[in-house]
From TrEMBL:
Function of the molecule: Catalyzes the isomerization of sedoheptulose 7-phosphate in D-glycero-D-manno-heptose 7-phosphate.
Name of the protein in question: Phosphoheptose isomerase
Residues holding Zn(2+): 55, 59, 166, 174
SUPFAM superfamilies: SIS domain (SSF53697)
Length: 187
């Protein structure tokens, strides 16, 4: 694909983001309520979405722009000992589920990122978190995939192309940080 085509597809996706603005605002409201109630965020995903998970968890724990208190967020994608031991001894399909069982509490909010909406390890972990009673959001592409009928709430980036969906996801994640700074920042 030419640079011009990739940019055009990126712009088309971003021009459609207002279609999901209400969903993103609903997510921000639930994240703010989760922090206010003493809950935490748990992120997970594969490949580029694993990178997005740790990127966003860091924004909350450390800082985005404003000076504010540290906010509790964990990426389930970062502990190489857990990831390798679980995948080696059990299965990669339950690598996030096991961590959900260990770390997730009923007042937490879980965000599973999957551009296809079909990653087995994300689906399994969301089902486990629902059993615990946590609110579960899936960030997907416009089809929603299997997660469409499983997650409690969805952010469906308006594209069918993995890269464009990931670009929309990180924009949404940054805006979420922006909104938490506005609500919780002191600067
Ligand atoms: O970053 C990319 C492609 O842009 C890849 O690493 C991509 O994230 C991986 O193929 C993932 O395994 C795709 O999983 P998912 O988004 O369908 O859940
Ligand atoms: Zn990528």
């Amino acid at each position: 694909m030419s640079f011009e085509s990739a940019l055009q597809r990126h712009m088309q996706t971003f021009n459609r983001l207002p279609e999901i603005q209400a969903d993103v605002q609903a997510l921000a409201d639930q994240v703010a309520a989760t922090f206010a109630a003493g809950g935490k965020l748990l992120f997970m995903g594969n490949g580029g979405s694993a990178a997005d998970s740790q990127h966003l968890a860091a924004e909350f724990v450390v800082r985005y722009k404003a000076e504010r208190r540290a906010l509790p967020a964990i990426a389930l994608t970062v502990d190489s000992s857990i990831l390798t031991a679980h995948s080696n001894d059990y299965s990669f399909d339950s690598v996030f589920t096991r961590q959900i069982e260990a770390l997730c509490r009923p007042d937490d909010l879980v965000i599973g990122l999957s551009t296809s909406g079909n990653s087995a390890n994300v689906i399994s972990a969301i089902e486990a978190a629902q059993q615990i009673g946590a609110i579960c959001w899936a960030w997907t592409g416009e089809s929603g995939g299997k997660l469409d009928s499983i997650a409690d709430h969805l952010i469906k980036a308006p594209s069918t192309e993995t890269a464009r969906i990931q670009e929309a996801h990180i924009f949404i994640g940054h805006w979420l940080c922006e909104e938490m700074d506005r609500l919780l920042g002191s600067a």
